[in-house]
Design goal:
Elements (H helix, E strand, L loop, with lengths): L4 E3 L2 E3 L6 E5 L6 E6 L3 H20 L2 H17 L1 H12 L3 H18 L2 H4 L3 E7 L2 E9 L2 E5 L7 H4 L2 H6 L3 E5 L6 H13 L6 E3 L4 H9 L3 E7 L2 H13 L3 E5 L5 E4 L5 H13 L11 E5 L2 H14 L19 H17 L2 E4 L16 E4 L6 H4 L6 E7 L2 H9 L3 E2 L1 E5 L3 H10 L4 E4 L15 E2 L2 E3 L6 H6 L1 E9 L2
Parallel strand pairs: 7-8, 7-10, 8-9, 10-11, 12-13, 12-18, 13-16, 15-16, 18-19
Antiparallel strand pairs: 1-2, 3-4, 5-6, 6-22, 11-21, 14-15, 17-20
Helix pairs in contact: 2-4, 2-8, 3-4, 3-8, 9-10, 11-12
The structure holds nicotinamide-adenine-dinucleotide.
């Protein structure tokens, strides 16, 4: 199957001669081919979106919301099929695939409330007989560039809000997992939005640069690795765009000696190995404070050794493959690096997965990791967990504070005071207390700090309404 773009209300084949194979990471079977579209094709989509904008902005907000209600019903009707496509192209297990889609749907739900959400403000008598009204106004064409790890959810962090506020939209999904969005665009097509309101352009770097530089695009949302986030932020800013660029992560989970044993072990293992560690909120390093190391280490290792690795479509699979052959090689090179740096490899996930069909890797644990080791510093984005041991909570906070990325962190404790001290003092902007994956719901803002986020306004929640609208203030006096 050759995937299409969706431009001006129609599915169209790309003119490109360059295609990438979309490969099932569990079987290495070729599922489809995705075009690496050209800048000219992007331009066609931008022109269509720009032409559609004036009429779409004038469409009453409640009517715009009705298209989203219809889309939501179609997604629910096709829920299992979409989750299966997602699992096939990404590798995550079906439960995780359903969670990915469910979190995406949550955003449609919130955006359906746009008639209330995008209301403005007013005040009488800002001067004698002078009134003031502040309205929110759609701005034009917006675009989003999304990563491979949440093929349904991340695009839905943006598109429903962009169009419900009255903007028009272009999506460039990850070329590694384009099939979920292909299916979702088939459903959008059934919704019958006016032509040009939403557009799908498949591609790679050329489309990313084209989006950042296109003079008609007013704002760009990006989610992916930090170097590309920074590139998108800087390049888009040169043409005066609004940008929200969410980058990579290295997440530290702090475990206090008083934490509940059984619950904490389950939560930690799920955080570190769910979606094969390919979550931007995945726990990457466990920092044990004081006696917590002795209390938690063995139960965690026992649990890790019981994780079932396999095809995500099989019912009992805990952990599917990583996304690609290249990514598996990258994760393996981090394991080599950890050994050469002197960390103790106490669970070796390479064993049994040397020559598998499919990009499988077992759960791996390194002990005695130091913050200045490469495996202690860099985002591995795979099923490799690092253990660190420190004396005090402040030592743990220092490790977090000295790291250039700051997406999320969590603490595990039964003490309210310890939890309060921790949340108050750490810089990552998504913080969990006895939570392994502190993912804000769609009605709160999502995004990190420091090198994990470039921009001002984060994804979804109230920030989304700010991001997609300009504030217009009208001051009036009538004689
Ligand atoms: P990636 O940066 O490789 O790709 C993201 C997007 O950028 C894709 O659409 C891709 O086509 C494009 N791209 C890739 N390389 C490019 C380049 N050199 N120039 C221009 N465009 C380029 O990221 P990924 O591997 O797809 O996703 C994993 C990363 O995303 C991890 O670092 C993860 O932490 C991060 N992530 C962050 C969040 C968050 O909320 N902060 C959420 C999900 C994923």
């Amino acid at each position: 199957m050759i995937l299409s773009n969706y431009i001006n209300g129609e599915f169209c084949h790309s003119d490109s001669k360059d295609f990438l194979e979309v490969i099932n990471p569990a079987t290495e079977e070729v599922l489809s081919k995705v075009p690496l579209s050209s800048a000219a094709e992007l331009d066609k989509a931008v022109q269509a979106a720009n032409d559609a904008f004036p009429a779409w902005r004038r469409t009453p907000v409640v009517e715009r919301a009705k298209y989203l209600f219809k889309f939501k019903s179609l997604v629910e009707e096709n829920f299992d099929e979409i989750a299966k496509i997602l699992s096939l192209e990404h590798g995550k297990n079906l439960l995780e695939a359903k969670g990915d889609l469910r979190r995406g749907i949550d955003n449609i739900d919130v955006a359906c409330g746009m008639p209330s959400l995008m209301q403005g403000e007013n005040l009488e008598d800002v001067g004698r007989n002078i009134d003031c009204v502040s309205t929110r106004r759609a701005m034009g064409v917006f675009a989003a560039i999304t990563p491979f790890n949440f093929p349904a959810m991340v695009p839905l962090w943006f598109m429903p809000y962009a169009i419900a506020t009255g903007n028009t939209f272009i999506l460039k999904p990850s070329e590694r997992v384009p099939m979920t969005q292909q299916k979702l665009f088939e459903l959008w097509h059934q919704v019958g939005l006016p032509k040009g309101v939403i557009n799908l352009v498949n591609g790679g770097k050329e489309i990313v640069t084209g989006i950042c530089e296109h003079p008609l695009i007013k704002g760009v949302s990006f989610v992916g690795s930090s170097p590309v986030a920074k590139y998108v932020y800087e390049t888009s800013a040169k043409t005066g765009k609004r940008v929200q660029a969410l980058g990579g992560a290295k997440n530290f989970l702090v475990v206090m000696p008083d934490a509940d044993l059984e619950q904490t072990v389950n939560i930690l293992v799920e955080s570190c190995y769910g979606c094969a560690g390919e979550r931007c909120l995945a726990g990457s390093t466990l920092v044990f404070v004081g006696d917590a190391y002795e209390k938690f280490k063995e139960p965690i290792i026992n649990r890790v050794k019981n994780l079932k690795v396999g095809n995500g479509l099989e019912a009992d699979t805990d952990m599917g493959p990583v996304i690609s052959k290249q990514h598996k090689e990258k994760v393996l090179s981090y394991i080599e690096q950890g050994i050469s740096e002197g960390a103790e490899l106490i669970v070796d996930g390479r064993i049994g997965y040397e020559n598998t069909k499919g990009y499988f890797l077992g759960a791996t644990v390194f002990d005695m990791v130091k913050p200045d080791m490469v495996i202690g510093k860099e985002e591995i984005f795979g099923p490799v967990l690092c253990l660190m041991k420190v004396d005090t909570l402040q030592d743990a906070i220092d490790i977090i504070e000295n790291h250039p990325l700051a997406n999320t962190t969590s603490i595990f404790t039964t003490s309210g005071k310890t939890a309060r001290d921790f949340t108050y003092n750490v810089e990552p902007s998504m913080v969990g207390i006895n939570i392994g994956v502190a993912a804000p719901m769609s009605y709160f803002n999502f995004g990190g700090a420091k090198g994990s986020f470039f921009g001002d306004l984060k994804a979804h929640g109230k920030h989304s309404i700010e991001f997609y609208t300009d504030r217009k203030v009208v001051i009036s006096r009538w004689f």
